[in-house]
Specification:
By secondary structure, this protein is an alpha+beta fold. The protein has 1 helix and 2 strands, in the order ββα. It has a two-stranded antiparallel sheet with strand order 1-2. A hairpin with a 3-residue loop joins strand 1 and strand 2. The radius of gyration is 20 Å and the shape is elongated.
Length: about 70
Amino acid sequence: MSQGKSAGRKLVLVDHAGLGIVRVDMEAFFEFSFWMAEELEDLVAKWAPVASPNASRKNKNHSLDGSRS
């Protein structure tokens, strides 16, 4: 399969002998990444009022396993 001319820079996401090489347009990848980050922030803000009080990320005295750091 011919790849033709590539427009713009490419980002290699996977370079593994068994899986091959996965390349994506760098600009499109970062647009998608920023969009996902914004969506996640919106989701966190939407559900913050119903989240468990102990689930706050501001409390950094506890690790993920519940033990004190």
